[in-house]
Specification:
Layout lengths: L4 E4 L5 H10 L4 E4 L3 H5 L6 E3 L3 H6 L3 E4 L4 H9 L4 H4 L5 E4 L5 H13 L3 E4 L2 E2 L1 H7 L2 E6 L2 H14 E8 L3 H29 L4 H9 L6 H5 L1 H6 L8 H18 L4 H15 L10 H9 L9
Parallel strand pairs: 1-2, 1-4, 2-3, 4-5, 5-6, 8-9
Antiparallel strand pairs: 7-8
Helix pairs in contact: 1-7, 4-6, 9-13, 9-15, 13-14
The chain binds NADP nicotinamide-adenine-dinucleotide phosphate.
EC number: 1.1.1.60
Protein name: 2-hydroxy-3-oxopropionate reductase
Keywords: NAD, Oxidoreductase
C-alpha cells in the first residue's frame, strides 16, 4: 500500500513541493503554521491537520520544509511536535537547510522513538520547486533513501545520496558557498565593467561564453540587469546558510576566508533593510561601495 505522506511547512518552497506530490498521486496530511496555506491545497488527496503531532500520527513519512534549525527543532521536538506523535518505523525527511550538527542530534532523537530520519536539503529555488526539478542531496541510510525515492522523484530531478546523517546538509552548505561567492564575483565584474563604460548586458554575454560562464549569469541576469530583486531566494536566508557553512568550517577545522567576507556583506545588506530582497541584490552593495549603479551611467 502506498505510504501516507505528512508535509509540514508550506512556504515558498514547501507549497509547490507538496502540490507536486499530490499531482504524482500521493495522499498527504498537511500542516502549516498559517492554516490558510494548507487549506489552499486540501482536497481528495490532501487533508489538513491541526499540529505537527497530528500529522505524524497519520503518516508513514513526514516531510518538513522550514526556515532554519530552531524551527525544525521546534516542529520535531516541541510540544505537539512530530516526535510526540510519530509511529514506530516512520521516516522523517527534513528538506529544510539547517545545521548538520543539529540534524544529527534530531536523527538520534527520532531513532529513540523507533523512527528514522534523512536530511534532504534542496537547491534549484522556487522555480525548481514549482517545476519539480529540484536538486536533492540526501544524508542518511541507503534503505531510507530507497524508501523516500518515489517522493523525491515527484519533487526533483537530480537526486543524490551523499552519505550518512548530516552529509546532505554539508553538501548544501558547500553549494551555498559557491552560489554566494559567484553572485559576489559577477557583481564586481558588472560594476567594474559598467563604471568603465561597457554595457552590462554585453559583459554577461561575454562572460557566459568562456571559463567565467556560470548559472548565476543565466538565472539572475534579468534581476541584476533590471534591478528587480523580488525573491527568489532571500538575502536573509542565504546569510543564514553562510552562517551554517562557517559553523561547519569551525566544527571540522576548515578555513573559509572568502565565505566569511561575503557573510559580512550579507549582514550589511540586512542592516540596510534589504534582507527580504533576492540574493542577487548583493550587486547593490558593490554599487553602493563604488558610487555607481549599473546601466544608468550614474557616478
Ligand atoms: N526559497 C528558495 O529559493 C530556497 C531554495 C533552496 C532551499 N531553500 C530552503 O528551504 C527552506 C524553506 O524556505 P522557503 O523559501 O520555503 O521559506 P518560507 O517561504 O519562509 O517558508 C517557511 C515555512 O516555514 C513555516 N514556519 C516558519 N516558522 C515556523 C515555526 N516556528 N513553526 C512552524 N512553521 C514555521 C512558515 O509558516 P507560515 O506560512 O506560517 O509563515 C512557512 O510555511 C529554508 O531552509 C531555505 O533555506 C529555499
Amino acid at each position: 500500500m502506498a505510504e501516507k505522506v505528512g508535509f509540514v511547512g508550506l512556504g515558498i518552497m514547501g507549497k509547490p513541493m507538496a502540490r507536486n506530490l499530490i499531482e504524482a498521486g500521493h495522499d498527504l496530511v498537511l500542516y502549516n503554521r498559517t492554516r490558510e496555506k494548507a487549506e489552499d491545497l486540501a482536497g481528495d488527496k490532501a487533508i489538513v491537520a491541526a499540529s505537527p503531532r497530528e500529522v505524524a500520527e497519520q503518516s508513514d513519512v513526514i516531510i518538513t520544509m522550514l526556515p532554519d534549525s530552531p524551527q525544525v527543532e521546534e516542529v520535531l521536538t516541541g510540544p505537539d511536535g512530530v516526535l510526540e506523535g510519530v509511529r514506530e518505523g516512520a521516516l522523517i525527511v527534513d528538506m529544510s537547510t539547517i545545521s548538520p550538527v543539529v540534524t544529527k542530534g534530531l536523527a538520534a532523537k527520532a531513532e529513540e522513538k523507533g523512527a528514522s530520519m534523512l536530511d534532504a536539503p534542496v537547491s534549484g529555488g522556487d522555480v525548481g520547486a514549482i517545476d519539480g526539478t529540484l536538486s536533492i542531496m540526501v544524508g542518511g541510510s541507503e534503505e531510507d533513501f530507497e524508501r523516500a525515492g518515489p517522493l523525491f522523484e515527484a519533487m526533483g530531478k537530480t537526486i543524490t545520496h551523499v552519505g550518512g546523517s548530516g552529509t546532505g546538509q554539508v553538501v548544501k552548505a558547500a553549494n551555498q558557498i559557491v552560489v554566494a561567492l559567484t553572485i559576489e564575483a559577477v557583481s564586481e565584474a558588472l560594476v567594474l565593467g559598467s563604471k568603465a563604460g561597457v554595457e552590462p548586458g554585453k559583459i554577461l554575454d561575454v562572460l557566459g561564453g568562456g571559463l567565467a560562464g556560470n548559472k548565476v549569469i543565466e538565472a539572475k541576469r534579468e534581476k541584476m540587469l533590471g534591478h528587480s530583486f523580488d525573491p527568489g531566494f532571500r538575502i536573509e536566508l542565504h546569510h543564514k546558510d553562510l552562517g551554517i557553512a562557517l559553523a561547519a568550517g569551525r566544527e571540522y577545522g576548515v578555513a573559509l576566508p572568502v565565505t566569511a567576507v561575503v557573510d559580512q556583506m550579507l549582514e550589511t545588506l540586512k542592516a540596510k533593510g534589504r534582507g527580504d530582497r533576492d540574493h542577487s541584490a548583493l550587486l547593490t552593495l558593490i554599487e553602493d561601495s563604488s558610487g555607481h549603479e549599473i546601466g544608468n551611467g550614474g557616478s
